[in-house]
Amino acid sequence: MAEAIVVSKQEPQKPQRRKRGEVDADALFLPPCVRKARRVDSTHWANPSTGWKPAVRPALAAAALPLAEGASQENLWAERQRLKKWSRQNATAARKLPAVEGWQAETDAETTLPWSTSASSFAGALVGQKDLAAEPRGETLDVQPDDEPSQFDMLTPEESIAKSEIWHEVNRDLLEYWDGKRRRKREMQRAEEKSKEKALEDLTRIAQFEKHRQERQEQLERTKQRRDALDTDRRLRALSQLDGTGDGEAEDDGQMEQDTEEEEGGMLQFWQADGSRKQTFTPHA
Q1: CB atoms < 10 A from the CB of 180, how many?
Q2: Across residues 70-77, what is the average pLDDT?
Q3: 113 C-beta neighbours (distance < 10 Å), count
Q4: Which of 44, 57, 111, 164 is the most exposed place for a label (fewest CB within 10 A)?
Q5: Sign of dihedral through CA atoms 134, 135, 139, 141?
Q6: How far apart are CA 247 and CA 216, in angstroms?
Q7: Superkingdom of the source (predicted)?
Q8: What is the pLDDT at residue 187?
Q9: Helices (DSSP H) in 101-171: which residue ranges?
């Protein structure tokens, strides 16, 4: 029985269309023309099937520090943090730490460290660290010739004056504004002080005037009483028809008018004593 062998013609594979936004992982290592060519030609040299791979820089592996005896990775980190903090706070005590190569010296480190630990665990926790005793501190450094400022770091007196003049010229508007602001502030303070002094003088003058007005009112009351008494006496004398009554009345009237004029003149002299108020004063009855 003859077996029928069917041979199907294999068609070349069509390149798959990529979705928008989809990018190969190694697209950043190739220019656009190479990426387009390798999508069309499956035998292109930039295809992974031909053995091409992007050059990747090998990651630097961090050197693993040996752990102390009976210590884990977590408490090693904690030991380092505590040591850094303690060394910053106690620089003098940190310089007394043992300085031995490999940190394997069996010394009494417990008396120096603020926490309880043995010398071997302390040495193992600080493998690869600098010796704190050998590292100089700020308060123990000596001043060296290189520490002095160079001639380029400091300005000469002439350069300083020139720089100040340039700064004043550039910022003239700002300086004038500040000067005007200070001047206006001083003027306002002086004006406020003058107004306070004037108000105090006015209050004093008003108080004195009120005092004299009361005194004048009292004097007018007394003068009125005297006039009333004279009028009563004149009427009584007229009724009694005594001799010399006319001469006595004239003398009393003249004396009363003289006293009234003296009182009113005193008030006018007080009111016109102040040079700022030269005006006619009309007394009220």
Answers
A1: 10
A2: 63
A3: 19
A4: 57
A5: positive
A6: 30
A7: Eukaryota
A8: 94
A9: 119-125, 157-170
Tokens 């028809």 map to which residue?
Answer: 241
Domain ranges of the chain: 23-50, 73-136, 190-271
How far, in Å, are 74, 122, 264, 280 from residue 78 at the CA level? 6, 12, 102, 98
Q: Encode pLDDT of 251-268 as tens digits.
A: 555 565 666 666 555 555
- Provide the sign of the torsion angle of the four alpha carbons 104, 107, 109, 112, taken in this order: negative
If you count DSSP H runs as helices and E runs as strands, how many of each does the chain have, helices first? 7, 0
Q: Which residue has the tokens 């904690």?
A: 78
pLDDT at 191: 93
Q: Give, in degrees to the nearest 5, the angle at Cα 188 between 186 and 193.
A: 95
Chain Cα centroid distance, residue 176? 24
Residue with tokens 């031995």: 100
Q: What is the dihedral of CA 264, 270, 274, 275, to 10 degrees?
A: 40
Average pLDDT over residues 15-41: 71
> In sequence order, which residues have a C-beta less than 8 Å from that of residue 107 and are 6 or more positions away?
98, 100, 119
Confidence of residue 164 (pLDDT cuts 50, 70, 90): confident
Residue pair 105/126 in contact by the 8 Å Cβ criterion: no
Q: Which two tokens stand for residue 156?
A: 């000469």
Q: Is 66 helix (H, G, I), strand (E, B) or coil?
A: coil
